[in-house]
């Protein structure tokens, strides 16, 4: 099992449970994670959802340890890549984002590329003071992680900066631009997150659903949903280029990408 799921005091806690690989996302982890979100959404005893990661880091992103693995797209056609990513990197994340219950991501250590795909769909983000967020996939010839919330979460210029440079931003920087709600000492992350969840769980469920729907619909009217869909399609041109140039492992710069991720951990 790559996910731990617990319910207590009207709070569902979903824990990423691959700490030995910094909670890197293989297909099984993502499928189990989606099942946990579905369970929390369907459970009338759950008022708030917490997403957290076991170990030192929240998530090092997609598991790219093997260029020949399915997750590394080593033996897949472009059609197969799009089918795989449409399900796990687009359908799942939009479902989590639109789950009609408040959700909180508790982020510590590194949150790299695909890690953003896990915390950005959550309604609130509490970050430990050691948290750093990055999306270094431009080095792979790709314009950003599949769930392209960058502009909405960071603003256009900060989004371009982290994409163009691949550098990580600190929890404090993320809080300044509004991507993170609050920053707490690492030792207090779980407690602070649970206290916030408990205070939200006291509110009327219908009111919470209405408030979440109102904010999400406002973003959608501004173009969020259409942008996520269209930029996902643009993302696939990176895979298409990689296949035409090298047939994968692309990523002419895959080793560079792996080195960059390792330096983040």
UniProtKB/TrEMBL annotation:
InterPro entries: ClpP/crotonase-like_dom_sf, Enoyl-CoA_hydra/iso. This is Enoyl-CoA hydratase. Belongs to the enoyl-CoA hydratase/isomerase family. NCBIfam families: PRK08290.1 (NF006140).
């Amino acid at each position: 099992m790559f996910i731990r799921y617990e319910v207590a005091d009207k709070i569902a806690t979903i824990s990423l449970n691959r700490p030995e690989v910094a909670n890197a996302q293989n297909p099984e982890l993502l499928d189990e994670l989606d099942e946990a979100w579905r369970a929390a959404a369907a459970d009338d005893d759950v008022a708030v959802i917490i997403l957290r990661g076991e170990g030192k880091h929240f998530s090092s992103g997609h598991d790219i340890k093997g260029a020949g693995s399915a997750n590394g797209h080593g033996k897949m056609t472009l059609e197969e890549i799009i089918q795989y990513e449409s399900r796990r990197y687009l359908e799942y994340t939009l479902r989590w984002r639109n789950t009609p219950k408040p959700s909180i991501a508790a982020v510590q250590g590194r949150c790299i590329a695909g890690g953003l795909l896990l915390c950005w769909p959550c309604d609130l983000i509490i970050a430990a003071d050691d948290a750093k967020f990055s999306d270094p996939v431009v080095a792979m010839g790709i314009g950003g992680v599949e769930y392209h919330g960058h502009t909405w979460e960071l603003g256009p210029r900060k989004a371009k900066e982290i994409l163009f440079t691949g550098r990580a931003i600190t929890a404090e920087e993320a809080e300044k631009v509004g991507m993170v709600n609050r920053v707490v000492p690492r030792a207090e992350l779980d407690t602070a997150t649970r206290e916030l969840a408990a205070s939200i769980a006291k509110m009327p469920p219908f009111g919470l659903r209405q408030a979440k729907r109102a904010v999400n619909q406002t973003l959608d009217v501004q173009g969020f949903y259409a942008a996520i869909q269209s930029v996902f399609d643009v993302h696939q041109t990176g895979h298409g280029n990689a296949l035409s140039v090298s047939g994968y492992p692309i990523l002419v710069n895959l080793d560079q990408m792996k080195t960059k991720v390792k330096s983040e951990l």
